[in-house]
Amino acid sequence: MAKRYESIVAADPNHTIAWNNLASCHLDLKDQRALHAAEAAHRLKPEDGTILDTLGVVQLRYGRADMAVQTLKKALLASL
Predict the structure, then answer these.
(1) Counting Cβ atoms within 10 Å, is residue 45 exposed (0-12), middle (13-18) or buried (19+)?
(2) Residue 58 main-chain phi, psi, to 5 deg
(3) Would you state the CATH architecture of domain 2-79?
(4) Burial category of 60 from C-beta neighbours within 10 Å (exposed 0-12, middle 13-18, buried 19 and up)
């Protein structure tokens, strides 16, 4: 599945959903490229709750707990 999202973002680097889904796929595969993909999605839509949630989980997984707490708080507020 990650390959599919990689081809989508290669064709359209502004495809926010594909970047977010790619981050989730990489996270499931324990691939550190998840952080790059989550950050790319966040740059495109910084206030999107779903993207913030993905970014926060990725940050937590890859040792950025302080950042993850802040990001996940923003995700929660965005979903209210």
Answers:
(1) middle
(2) -65, -45
(3) Alpha Horseshoe (1.25)
(4) middle
